[in-house]
Design brief:
The complex is a heterodimer of chains A (288) and B (246).
Chain A lengths: L2 H5 L5 E4 L5 H6 L7 E4 L8 H9 L5 E4 L13 H14 L3 E5 L2 E4 L2 E7 L5 H18 L4 E3 L6 E2 L6 H12 L2 E5 H11 L3 H6 L6 E6 L3 E5 L2 E5 L8 H14 L4 E3 L8 H26 L1
Parallel strand pairs in A: 1-2, 1-13, 2-3, 3-4, 4-7, 7-9, 9-10, 10-13
Antiparallel strand pairs in A: 5-6, 11-12
Helix pairs in contact in A: 5-6, 9-10
Chain B lengths: L3 H12 L5 H4 L2 E2 L5 H23 L1 H7 L1 H14 L14 H6 L10 H16 L17 E3 L4 E5 L3 H7 L16 E8 L2 E6 L2 H12 L3 H11 L5 H10 L3 E3 L1
Antiparallel strand pairs in B: 2-6, 3-4, 4-5
Helix pairs in contact in B: 3-5, 4-5, 4-7, 9-10
The chains are: A alpha/beta (288), B mainly alpha (246).
């Protein structure tokens, strides 16, 4: 795997690229440390793809897939994997990531990152698919922890242990979405700090941050990972804890619902950068 | 304990509006009905696919009112979920669905307006391909229409209907009796555009959609109009950049 050299292109804080911000980003000087794009939005041609070709001259890129369905029983969709490989070859991103989830069953794409039961059977499926994807892409894959609203009755392996085993068996990296850790543990029980402590810091290559919504379901609070607000204070606190454990890992601000002005995303990215600098500073002090 | 494949089949059935009971017992309630937990996922699946359709079919949504659109989209999503994860490719059969959707029958032109919007979506995302240069035609090479091009005949004035239902359009009355149109939809300089073609132009270009031989397309044009100006027909497709190497 030759990804370590290219991964060095992504450092500090970045933002998820949204179509509403493309013109402004193209017109000005580089405004964020790096950009992340959803792979499936760039698998055709046309103006959006050409704009991205221009942006990649100024920004290191991360390609974030949502459609590979690593957790589907049965084989990967080889046609889709081929399109992802072509995109990776064309964009030469520093990072390529996907999700610990499934979206495809019986040939239907369900347009959501659906939860897996954490069993030995599911682990074997995901291990096989991650290995196949890394082989086809010629690139190390980062796998992101999901946000969850349910858990299965038979799911004996804790999620962080499942991710750690996946990384050990495939050599993949982890994309730790700190907001997802918060949302899932609030919705399903569990201690978010203990979740972070159960991951191996050497596996964590990227961090995601986003906002969530607090909804009511039959009188019970349920957090929805809608990427539609600023990062919540409790998630910033958990992020500080993640950096203390993992070191100053490149961090992305995601915003997908009610996308605000670019300046708001950049403010959030600057807040993340301030956290990163503090942790870089404490690392440097320790090294000295 | 269910095998993973069976569990995923049951979740799929539950999400697409079938029986939640078949998977409910596999889910831990944690103080909530398992069906309420599944509903969070189902709402997201339907909402994200409806939003994808609404972004492709904004004029259809305006014509029928957005609440009716979401009702139709909900039924379509359950009947024809996407087969792949690129959502800009989802919804190509929505016009046919509308044509046989009982609640939409009173708007006879609706499926053709939808076809126009789908053609615009195809044009927006079509692969980039260099148009043929005029000089390249001298040797009569095989040719094809640019991948962004759709030729769309309709018995309704769908171009006027589309223009009258833009967010920025002034209130305009469309004369539905204005009759049929033959449209070409394509991408020109990164802009998606359409225009009406004369019958002979339409025949020439429609033939190019089926054959790579310019001579066969010329014959099709002459079939419509024996006095067709073949030089002008060829010059116009080159000027518009709508032909590529076949």
């Amino acid at each position: 795997m030759d990804s370590s050299d290219r991964a060095s292109g992504v450092a500090g804080s970045g933002i998820g690229l949204r179509s509403a911000h493309v013109a402004e980003l193209l017109a000005g000087p580089p405004a964020a440390g790096w950009l992340e794009v959803h792979a499936e939005n760039y698998m055709g041609g046309g103006p959006a793809v050409r704009a991205l070709e221009r942006l990649r001259r100024d920004y290191p890129l991360s390609v974030h897939g949502v459609g590979l369905s690593l957790g589907t029983a049965g084989g990967l969709d080889e046609a889709h994997l081929g399109r992802l490989a072509a995109l990776v070859e064309r964009l030469e991103p520093a990072l390529v990531s996907e999700h610990l989830s499934w979206s495809v069953a019986g040939g239907a794409y369900l347009s959501h990152l659906l939860p897996l039961p954490y069993t030995e059977e599911a682990l074997d499926v995901v291990v096989e698919h991650v290995a196949r994807a890394q082989e086809r892409l010629g690139h190390r894959l980062l796998v992101e922890n999901p946000s969850s609203y349910l858990r299965f009755a038979h799911s004996p392996i804790p999620e962080p242990a499942f991710l750690a085993a996946l990384a050990r068996r495939t050599g993949c990296g982890l994309l730790c979405d700190v907001n997802n850790v918060y949302v899932s543990t609030r919705n399903l029980g569990g201690d978010p700090a203990a979740y972070l402590d159960a991951l191996d810091p050497r596996d964590v290559v990227e961090i995601h941050l986003a906002g969530h919504a607090v909804n009511d379901a039959d009188g019970r609070e349920i957090l929805i990972d809608d990427h539609g607000a600023r990062v919540a204070p409790a998630v910033w606190a958990l992020y500080g804890r993640a950096l203390a454990r993992f070191g100053p890992v490149p961090t992305l601000i995601e915003w997908d619902t009610d996308v605000p002005a670019l300046a708001v995303l950049l403010e959030e990215a600057e807040t993340a950068m301030a956290h990163l600098r503090r942790h870089q500073g404490s690392l440097d002090a320790r090294a000295a | 304990m269910l095998a993973l494949r069976e569990l995923q089949t049951r979740v799929r059935t539950a999400l697409l509006g079938g029986d939640a009971g078949a998977v409910g017992q596999e889910i831990v309630g944690d103080g909530l009905d398992p069906a309420a937990r599944l509903a969070v996922y189902r709402n997201h699946v339907v909402a994200s696919l409806t939003a994808a359709l609404e972004s492709i079919y904004p004029v259809v949504a305006r014509l029928v009112d957005v609440r009716f659109f979401r009702y139709a989209a909900d039924a379509y999503v359950r009947e024809a979920p996407p087969t792949g994860p690129c959502l800009f490719e989802y919804g190509g059969t929505f016009p046919e669905f509308l044509a046989r959707f009982p609640a939409a029958r009173s708007l006879a032109y609706l499926p053709d307006v939808a076809r126009l919007e789908w053609a615009m979506n195809v044009a927006l995302h079509a692969p980039d391909a260099p148009p043929l240069e005029p000089g390249a035609l001298r040797a009569l090479p095989p040719v094809a229409l640019h991948p962004s091009v759709t030729l769309l005949p309709s018995p309704w004035p769908v171009d006027s209907i589309w223009r009258a239902h833009q967010a920025t359009a002034p209130e305009r009355v469309v004369d539905l009796a204005a009759g049929s149109v033959r449209l070409q939809v394509w991408r020109a300089d990164d802009e998606v555009v359409f225009r009406e073609l004369a019958p002979v132009e339409f025949a020439f270009r429609e033939a190019l959609a089926r054959t790579t031989a310019l001579a066969a397309a010329a014959e099709a044009a002459l079939g419509v109009d024996p006095a067709a100006d073949l030089t002008a027909l060829v010059r116009d497709v080159l000027d518009e950049g709508v032909v590529v190497a076949g």
